[in-house]
Amino acid sequence: MQHIEDSSSFYVRVPTRVLGCLRSGEITIILFPGHGLVLTEPIQTNLIPENLRMPNSEFDVLFKHPGREMIRILHRKEFCSEIDESND
User: Fold this and answer.
1) How far is CA 51 from CA 10, 16, 37, 75, 88, in A?
2) Cα–Cα dist 48/50, whole Å
3) pLDDT in tens, 44-73
4) Which residues of 46-76 are buried (b: 16+ CB within 10 A; e: fewer)?
5) Is the pTM of this model over 0.90?
């Protein structure tokens, strides 16, 4: 995980994989797939681009801490100004 710190908060880019879709308009994702933990999180379907909604699709989620606030969905290797700018 990469992150930057600014006084009291920081951002984390979390790799995810789509587990499946629920009838309630939510998609369940697996956080940190392949790390031996099964951490799942429901996300509203409309927040995920259509081409990433199928089971086993992989993308990253940008979270802001503290509070674990989801900022946005990122394609893999997509530039993220909150994190990637500091790595230049």
Assistant:
1) 28, 15, 26, 10, 29
2) 6
3) 888 899 999 999 999 999 988 887 888 899
4) eebeeebeeeeeebbbbbeeeeeeeeebbee
5) no
**Which amino acid would we find at residue 11?**
Y
Q: In sequence order, what are the beta bridge partners of 72? A: 62
Q: Residue 66, preceding bond cis, omega within 30 degrees?
A: yes
Tokens of 30: 């697996």
| Token pair belonging to 84 | 């990637």
Half-sphere exposure of residue 78, counting CA atoms within 13 Å on the CB side? 15
Copy the structure tokens of residue 67.
Answer: 């509070």
